[in-house]
Amino acid sequence: MAQTKKKRRRKHRGTQGGRIDTRPARGRPRSRADAQNRARSRTKKKSGPRVPDPPSWMSALKKSTIATVLFIGLLSLFGQNPLVALVSGLVIGVFFYLPGVYLLDRFMYQRHLRKEAQKRQEREAQRTGARQPEG
Questions:
Q1: Domain map (residue ranges) of the chain
Q2: What is the pTM for the complete model shown?
Q3: What does the alpha-carbon distance between residue 132 and residue 65 come to, in Å, rounded to a whole number?
Q4: Which of 28, 86, 96, 134 is 20 to 30 A from residue 58's alpha carbon, by CA?
């Protein structure tokens, strides 16, 4: 005998307890555009290229504090008197690490800005160069 009821096309997402799953359907995409969007989102990097923060003394202080603590621990590990290790670690941390970390951050940030400016100039040259007639 022929079946009169139409079969349902999609699976019901509810459970016997009445809860409805909120996960997206993992079946086939409905259209080609959906399939392309799904493929793009799967292959796209989530974070993108890393952009350095502008240099600041506060970030340099945090980084040099970590380096100073590690340096003091290393001096203590090699048998240095704890008081001497603390004083020498703080002196080296304040007078060498702190300005060095700030200068390194500033160098990295300025290098990033130079690269971005160079990319912008290249794009501008390509854009304006393509519009000029050859002759």
A1: 57-130
A2: 0.57
A3: 55
A4: 86
Amino acid found at 50: R
Locate 65 and state its tokens: 């504090």
Helix (H) or strand (E) holding 130: helix 98-131
In tens, the pLDDT along 41-56 reads 777 666 667 788 899 9
Maximum CA extent, the chain: 96
User: Tell me, what amino acid is at 113?
Assistant: L
Ranges of H-type helices in 1-97: 32-43, 57-77, 82-92
Give me the pLDDT at residue 42, please. 77
CA distance readout (Å), 69 to 62, 81, 83:
11, 15, 13
Angle separating helix axes 57-77 and 82-92, nearest 10 degrees: 150
CB within 8 Å of 88: residues ≥ 6 apart: 75, 80
What's the Cα-to-Cα distance from 14 to each of 8, 25, 28, 101, rounded to whole Å? 14, 12, 19, 56
Q: 20: helix, coil or strand?
A: strand
Neighbours of 67 (CB within 10 A): 18
